[in-house]
């Protein structure tokens, strides 16, 4: 029975490209420059039975996949034809000395206004694996995102069996509404925003949702072959478990850093994180569900409890259209609140070999991350105070709720010496010590607002203890640092205790990532060397938490000479 049922709805043309690359591999190993045009525009997109004018790039949802080799340069001209301000962030790209191309609005640039444009130019240096790009303005990244795939340098190979095919798997989150309206409403009321109506795989919710099954994404496979899935959590506000029914996943990379391979049946990704897994088609020819649903760590908080699916389809499987076909094999996913499975996964990640972990630490920071509640300002109306008990939700790091400037970007004001835009007094430790993960006194629930940066000397070796709090509610926070990869040398539950927890530090082979999952009611410790001058945002990658101020920024000073200094701003850098 030879039946290939599905049309290439997925990204199956990758292996053809792979062959072409092989043919040309001997020709030249020189780095290339890739030029792209991104037109940000409103596009009708029909999901869950209804059409919305979604903001997209080039009319595609998800947006175009960018594929480069390590060492290549990307030049992306972004034209804004939408009615919102927009910027694009290249999540996880180091942007060595090219902070102007990083993208977070009011941090490294002012937004691209409707009708405006900006060209992002940067080189990929020493990174291989899967990253992604997304809008970094309001909640536009709900629909403005895509994969950024970095293959090994031309002529070099993967540190694992070369996969037959490669498929990006972008996990997304869909609102049956305009996501910008959803966040604006939450900002007005002070309440938590509406939860999403679906999760998606490569833009499609899948068989378990209304009006969706005919568009379910099909990932084709031949019996016996080993393929690479590049899984990206591009959801706005939800950590996700991901699995493929009956198949083992061999983890080989995360956040564009290779990992010591290990095998698991389920992976967990916080928003922002990526995981590359090898999957061998070693089951009987059939159709198997690829599935993702929430890892919801906050107790009692509402969340979208739906499940998105795609189908792994063996080419020799009986065709659904002709003859008897069985429904796809059901996946088994952990319970929504299965923190044990989530941390079993994150603590299994290891660098493939001995890592160069910074040892003599120059800057030792302790940063609390969590929510808060603001009392209602005097004379405000109750409709603007619909958070718990008539308050408004907020969030902070070390009790500072981060406020973005509006007249200059932080990087521009730093570079041009424009005063009054920010201060450099972000505290290296919380202003008061308390039982962070215990029953926190109500008097500690209200942070202060500020645009406070923390200054780092070029080359300084930094350690940060990221300590979750249980203010209002404890939950897992995916903390992302722009412009850097860092080692996660330990994680645990409860309050970090330097007396006993330093003995758990892995200084041999810790994983290197750009986004750390700080365990619910727990902590994580990261280390990096401040070798990239500029202004770099560090924030929770749950968009609702950035909205509430769960962020801060580092100002990394220039070192000596041109090679240790940020390059001059591009001429077309948008101004405010
Ligand atoms: Cu992927 Cu500041 O973001």
Automatic annotation (TrEMBL):
Subcellular location, record wording? Secreted, Extracellular space, Apoplast
**What is the protein's major site of localization?**
secreted
Give the highest taxon in the source lineage: Eukaryota
Q: What keywords were assigned to this record?
A: Apoplast, Copper, Lignin degradation, Metal-binding, Oxidoreductase, Repeat, Secreted, Signal
Quote the EC number: 1.10.3.2
Catalytic activity annotation: 4 hydroquinone + O2 = 4 benzosemiquinone + 2 H2O
The Gene Ontology CC terms held by the record are: apoplast
GO terms (molecular function) for this protein are:
copper ion binding; hydroquinone:oxygen oxidoreductase activity
One biological process term from GO is: lignin catabolic process
InterPro entries (UniProt xref): Cu-oxidase-like_N, Cu-oxidase_2nd, Cu-oxidase_C, Cu-oxidase_fam, Cu_oxidase_CS, Cu_oxidase_Cu_BS, Cupredoxin, CuRO_1_LCC
Cofactor annotation comment = Binds 4 Cu cations per monomer.
Is Secreted a UniProt keyword of this protein? yes
Q: What class of enzyme is it?
A: oxidoreductase
For this UniProt entry, which segments traverse the membrane? Answer: none
- A Pfam family this chain is assigned to: Cu-oxidase_3
Segment forming the signal sequence: 1-30
Is Hydrolase one of the keywords UniProt gives this record? no
* Obligatory cofactor(s): Cu cation
Q: What PANTHER family does the record point to?
A: LACCASE-5, MULTI-COPPER OXIDASE
The UniProt entry's sequence similarity note says: Belongs to the multicopper oxidase family.
Function comment: Lignin degradation and detoxification of lignin-derived products.
The protein's name: Laccase
* Lineage, opening ranks: Eukaryota, Viridiplantae, Streptophyta, Embryophyta, Tracheophyta
């Amino acid at each position: 029975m030879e039946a290939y049922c599905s049309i290439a709805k997925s990204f199956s043309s990758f292996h053809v490209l792979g062959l072409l690359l092989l043919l040309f591999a001997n020709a030249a190993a020189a780095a290339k420059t890739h030029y792209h045009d991104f037109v940000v525009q409103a596009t009708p997109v029909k999901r869950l039975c209804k059409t919305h004018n979604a903001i997209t790039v080039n009319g595609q949802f998800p947006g175009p996949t960018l594929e480069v080799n390590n060492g290549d340069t990307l030049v992306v001209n972004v034209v804004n034809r939408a009615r919102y301000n927009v910027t694009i962030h290249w999540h996880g790209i180091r942007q060595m000395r090219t902070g102007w191309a990083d993208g977070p609005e009011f941090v490294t640039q002012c937004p691209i206004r409707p009708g405006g444009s900006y060209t992002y130019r940067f080189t990929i240096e020493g990174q291989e694996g899967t990253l992604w790009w997304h809008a970094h303005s309001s909640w536009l990244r709900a629909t403005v995102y895509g994969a950024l795939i970095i293959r090994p340098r031309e002529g070099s190979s993967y540190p694992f069996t070369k996969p037959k095919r490669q498929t990006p798997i972008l996990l997304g989150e869909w609102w049956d509404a305009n996501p910008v309206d959803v966040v604006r409403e939450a900002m007005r009321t002070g309440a938590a925003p509406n939860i999403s109506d679906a999760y998606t795989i490569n833009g499609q919710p899948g068989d378990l949702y209304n009006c969706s099954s005919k568009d379910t994404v099909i990932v084709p496979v031949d019996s016996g072959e080993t393929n690479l899935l590049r899984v990206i959590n591009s959801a706005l506000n939800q950590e996700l478990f991901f699995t493929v029914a009956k198949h083992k996943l061999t983890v080989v990379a995360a956040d564009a850093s290779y990992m010591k391979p290990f095998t698991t049946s389920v992976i967990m990704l916080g928003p922002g994180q990526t995981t590359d897994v090898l999957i061998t088609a070693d089951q009987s020819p059939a159709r198997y569900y690829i599935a993702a649903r929430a890892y919801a760590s906050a107790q009692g908080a509402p969340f979208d409890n739906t499940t998105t699916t795609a189908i792994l389809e063996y080419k020799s499987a009986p065709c659904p259209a002709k003859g008897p076909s069985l429904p796809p094999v059901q996946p088994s996913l952990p319970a929504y609140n299965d923190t044990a499975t989530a941390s079993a996964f994150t603590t299994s990640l290891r660098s493939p070999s001995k890592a160069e972990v910074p040892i003599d630490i120059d800057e030792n920071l302790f940063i609390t991350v969590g929510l808060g509640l603001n009392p209602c300002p005097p004379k405000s109306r109750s409709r603007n105070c619909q958070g718990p008990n008539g308050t408004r939700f907020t969030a902070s790091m070390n009790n500072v709720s981060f406020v973005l400037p509006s007249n200059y970007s932080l990087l521009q004001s730093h570079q041009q010496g424009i005063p009054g835009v920010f201060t450099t007094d972000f505290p290296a430790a919380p202003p008061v010590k308390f039982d962070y993960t215990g029953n926190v006194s109500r008097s500690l629930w209200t942070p202060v607002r500020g645009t406070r940066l923390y200054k780092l000397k070029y080359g300084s070796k930094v350690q940060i203890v990221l300590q979750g709090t249980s203010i209002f509610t404890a939950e897992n926070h995916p903390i992302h640092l722009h412009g850097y990869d860092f080692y996660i040398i330990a994680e645990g539950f409860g309050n970090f205790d330097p007396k006993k927890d330093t003995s758990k530090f892995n200084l041999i082979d810790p994983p290197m990532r750009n986004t750390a999952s700080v365990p619910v009611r727990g902590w994580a410790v990261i280390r990096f060397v401040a070798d990239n001058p500029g202004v770099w945002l560090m924030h929770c990658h749950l968009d609702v938490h950035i909205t509430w101020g769960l962020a801060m920024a580092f100002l990394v000073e220039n070192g000596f000479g041109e090679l240790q200094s940020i390059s001059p701003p591009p001429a077309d850098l948008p101004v405010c």
